[in-house]
Amino acid sequence: MTGTIRTKMAGSSGVLAVLTDPHLRDELDRVAAAVGVRVVHAGGGSAVSRKTWSAAAAVVLDEAAADLCGRAVLPRRAHVSVLTVTELATTTWAAAVAVGAQHVLRLPEQERELIRELAEAGESARDDGLRGEVVAVIGGCGGAGASLLAVALAEAAGDALLVDLDPWGGGIDLLVGGEGTPGLRWPDLALQGGRLNWPAVREALPRHRGISLLSGTRHGYELGGAPVDAVIDAGRRGGVAVVCDLPRRPSDATQAALDSADLVVVVSRSDVRACAATAAMAPALAAINPNLGLVVRGPSPGGLRATEVADITGLPLLASVKAQPQLAQQLERGGLRLGRRCALAVAARRVLAVLPSARSGRNGRAA
Question: Is the same domain home to 79 and 196?
Fold first, then answer.
C-alpha cells in the first residue's frame, strides 16, 4: 500500500483512518459525523509517520493497514481499532495484536462499540487539563440543610451537575422546582459503570436554571457505586462542577462520592445535639477523605457560635449561615431561588473558594 495523507492532522483533534474498503470508509465517516469527530483518511500504512500516528485522537485501521503499521513498529498508543465487515479471522486478530489495537470490531454489528470508542477518544483529545471539581455535601445531623447547601453550591458554580444520592430523599428535583422538567432520573438509567460521554449525559438529564440534575424519584430504589463513579467521572471530564448530595447512611454510592470528592462539606445545625452527632460522624468521613470542611447553619438556640461548633466537631470552618425562615415558604412555592446576597448563596461561594487548595492538598484537610 502506498500513498500520502491528504489532509494534515491538526494537533490531536482528528481520527486517523487507513481503510481500503470503501464500505468501511463510509461506515466510519457516518459514525464519526454522529459523534462529532473529524476523520482524516490516509492513503496507506507506509505513509503514516510516527508524528501523525501519535498526534491523532484515535486510529482506525483495516486488517491490511494494521499488518503494515505493525511491521513498521510504530509506538504503542491508546484508541487504536481494527475494523472489518467480514467474519473475524485469525489473520485479523494477529494484525491487531501486532499493531497494539485495543478493539477489533465488525461493522455494522458492533457500531455501538465504535461510537463509544470514538466518543471517548474525542473527549480525551479535547481535554486541555481543565477538569471539573467534585464537592460532596452531607449532613452531620438530621435536618441540617445539606440538600439546601448542595443546591446553593450548584447554582453558585454556574455550569454544574447536581447529583442526588439519597434514594429516600424524595428527589432533589423537588427542592429546585424542577420536578416537571423532562429528562432521566436515577431509576431510568440502565447503567452498570464504565466511561460515559459528558455531552451525551448532559443531553439526557433534566436541566433547570443552568444546572444538570440527576435526581432520585418518589419511589424507593438503590444505587451502586459503579454508576455513581461513571456519572461523576463524566461530569469531571466535561469540566463542570459536580455537587453530590449524600445521605447520612453508608452505602456504595456514598462511598464512591466520598472517594471522588475534592472537598467534603459537612453541614451542622448550631445546637448541642447536632454538634455531638457531627463530631461522631467526622472521624468516619475523615478516614475515607481527609478534605473535610464545616458549614454551620443557624439559628443557635443556646447561643453557640460557629467557631465553637467547629471546635466541638474538630472540623475546619468554611462558612456559617444565619437563619432564613423565608426559605421554607419559598420551597413550597416553586423551589429554591437564591439571590446573590442571600446568606446561603454567600456561604456557597465561600465553600467554592476553598476548592483550589482542596484539590492541591489531597493529603491534608481543606484550609
Answer: no
In this structure, the answer to whether residues 98 and 143 fall within a common structural domain is no
| 211-214 and 207-208 beta bridge pairing | antiparallel
39 and 167 together in one domain: no
Phi then psi for 25, rounded to 5 degrees? -60, -45
- Give me the CATH number covering residue 101: 3.40.50.2300
91, pLDDT greater than 70? yes
Check residues 43 and 62 and name the one with the higher pLDDT.
Answer: 62
Mean pLDDT over 207-217 rounds to: 87
Where residue 4 falls among pLDDT bands split at 50, 70, 90?
very low
Cα–Cα distance for residue pair 78/293, rounded to 1 Å: 38
Domain boundary among 126, 144, 161: 126
At 355, is the pLDDT very low, low, confident or very high (cuts 50, 70, 90)? Answer: confident
pLDDT-derived band at 221, boundaries 50, 70, 90: confident
Q: What cell numbers appear for 154 in the block? A: 450548584
Provide the domain count of the chain. Answer: 2
Question: How far is residue 108's CA from residue 180's CA, in Å, rounded to a whole number?
Answer: 38
Least Cα distance to 183 among 216, 205, 200, 213 occurs for: 205
Residue 19 vs residues 10, 43, 55, 122, 177: alpha-carbon distances, Å: 20, 8, 18, 20, 51
What is the span of the domain harbouring residue 205?
A: 134-360
The answer to whether residues 266 and 295 touch, using CB atoms and an 8 Å cutoff, is yes
